[in-house]
């Protein structure tokens, strides 16, 4: 019994695989990935791990001392167990439990964009973009070449990495495997290049860090975005600037009050009205950047990353869970891509014979010239023969194209919303937000306590909501959230 349980656990886990070429982590140790093969699915998920970045020799040295596991593969275990969208449990992961799962550990500190080797004055290399490319190449003979779709996903720095690498992965695959639909999901990687709340000597603004890092890493950004920012290509690390230039389909998940953004902006845990005002404006700024994003899920919560959390399916906006929204978007994306492929195939089938008809008509002119008794008879015979031949070929071409469409998998275009942006502008006003805890007592905080921790004048809050302070203090969580949501909908 024990051996069977061990075998089953081994089958559920992700197994460590080494890359076939010498692409490395920061310290020169070999990069790799964790893989669980599906025996029945042609759907693949490649997930890029997150973990911030370093941007100069000093910050990278400190990172090496404090977070060496994000710069080296020497301590990687042989197996990994990852939850959420990489879980093999149908209850935890209802739509992708049976997919081919690939988890790529983050060990390059460059938001998956680097292309540089270690230099004499530095012991670190930055090869995140090269690792992504090599993982895809290594997976092709392992079954990806026969796959039907590839979802490139990632959280935090991995979410930024998805946006930076999505089009290069699509181009790499479509050179020889155009049948594979490629699309991406960026989780908590949509950062803003706004001025921070305060400046400290040890903490540069996000813009300064990215500018320095881009040079250190020899960063690779999408060519289409680089053309848009020729003198400032580092701008492409910020999702709202990069997104309009992308052609590959992308689904964006982002907490409106992202903890990593708050850390980057050096605002800290809000305890003053000034901090609260800054955070509130941050949420408004994020919401504003989504105005032209086709597919987005943005709850009004204080948190960071979600895709590999085991309770990810509980998160909802307007009674639609994140997995439901993501799955319907994916089906719509695959349907649209397949329709495009079928239309292109039909067009090629119908256009190519027309070119052939013209060539054959010219040959026919030459071959029949001497077989007619007069020029007039010759012309009539030639026209009649060419018309009949062309009609026959057109009928066969249409029949062939129709049969090709009939043989392709039948997909029904799903009808669902692709934009879920929280209407309520208060942090944690979504009922399904991850719970917050008091940093001093460790106890779970209710919504009133949270508002007070922001340094808000509760009398002003009551006046804004049109109720008296006694009613506000005695209102339960559910009533208060309903009231706030109604205010947001006005």
UniProtKB/TrEMBL annotation:
Going by the entry's taxonomy, the superkingdom of the source organism is recorded as Eukaryota
Compositionally biased spans, kind Basic residues: 378-402
Its name, as the record gives it, is Palmitoleoyl-protein carboxylesterase NOTUM
Specify the species. Laodelphax striatellus (Small brown planthopper)
Q: Which InterPro entries does this one have?
A: PAE/NOTUM
Instruction: Show the GO MF annotations.
Output: hydrolase activity
Family the entry assigns: Belongs to the pectinacetylesterase family. Notum subfamily.
Point to the regions of Polar residues compositional bias.
368-377
Classification lineage: Eukaryota, Metazoa, Ecdysozoa, Arthropoda, Hexapoda
- PANTHER family associated with the record: NOTUM-RELATED (PTHR21562), PALMITOLEOYL-PROTEIN CARBOXYLESTERASE NOTUM (PTHR21562:SF122)
Region annotation (Disordered) maps to 364-409
């Amino acid at each position: 019994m024990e051996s069977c349980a061990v075998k089953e656990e081994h089958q559920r886990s992700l197994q460590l695989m080494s890359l076939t070429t010498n692409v490395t982590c920061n310290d020169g140790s070999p990069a790799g990935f964790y893989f669980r093969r599906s025996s029945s699915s042609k759907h693949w998920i490649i997930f890029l791990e997150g973990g911030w970045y370093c941007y100069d020799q000093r910050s990278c040295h400190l990172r090496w001392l404090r977070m060496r596991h994000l710069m080296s593969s020497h301590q990687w275990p042989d197996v990994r167990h990852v939850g959420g969208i990489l879980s093999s449990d149908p209850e935890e992961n209802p739509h992708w439990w049976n997919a081919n799962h690939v988890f790529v550990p983050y060990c390059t500190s460059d938001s998956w964009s680097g292309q540089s080797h270690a230099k004499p004055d530095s012991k670190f290399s930055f090869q995140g973009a090269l690792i992504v490319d090599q993982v895809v190449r290594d997976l092709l003979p392992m079954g990806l070449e026969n796959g039907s779709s590839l979802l490139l996903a990632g959280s935090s720095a991995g979410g930024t990495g998805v946006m930076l690498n999505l089009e290069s992965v699509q181009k790499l695959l479509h050179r020889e495997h155009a049948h594979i639909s490629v699309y991406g999901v960026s989780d908590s990687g949509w950062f803003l290049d706004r001025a921070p709340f305060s400046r400290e000597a040890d903490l540069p603004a996000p813009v300064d860090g990215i500018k320095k890092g881009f040079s250190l890493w020899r960063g690779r950004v999408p060519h289409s975005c680089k053309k848009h920012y020729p003198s400032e290509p580092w701008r492409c690390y910020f999702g709202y600037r990069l997104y309009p230039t992308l052609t590959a389909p992308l689904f964006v998940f982002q907490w409106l009050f992202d903890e990593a953004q708050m850390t980057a902006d050096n605002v800290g845990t809000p305890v003053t009205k000034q901090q609260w005002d800054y955070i509130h404006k941050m949420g408004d700024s994020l919401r504003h950047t989504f105005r032209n994003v086709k597919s987005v899920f943005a709850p009004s919560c204080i948190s960071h990353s979600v895709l590999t959390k085991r309770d990810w399916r509980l998160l909802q906006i307007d009674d639609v869970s994140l997995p439901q929204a993501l799955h319907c978007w994916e089906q719509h994306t695959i349907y649209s891509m397949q329709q495009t492929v079928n239309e292109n195939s039909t067009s090629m089938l119908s256009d190519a014979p027309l070119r052939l008809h013209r060539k054959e008509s010219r040959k026919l002119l030459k071959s029949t010239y001497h077989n007619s008794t007069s020029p007039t008879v010759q012309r009539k015979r030639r026209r009649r023969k060419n018309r009949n031949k062309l009609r026959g070929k057109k009928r066969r071409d249409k029949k062939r194209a129709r049969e090709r469409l009939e043989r392709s998998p039948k997909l029904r275009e799903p009808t669902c919303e692709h934009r879920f942006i929280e209407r309520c502008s208060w942090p944690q006003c979504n009922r399904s937000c991850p719970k917050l805890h008091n940093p001093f007592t460790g106890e779970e905080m209710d919504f009133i306590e949270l508002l007070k921790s922001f340094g808000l004048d509760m009398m002003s809050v009551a006046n804004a909501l049109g109720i008296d302070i006694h009613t506000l203090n005695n209102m339960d969580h559910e009533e208060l959230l309903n009231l706030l949501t109604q205010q947001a909908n006005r």
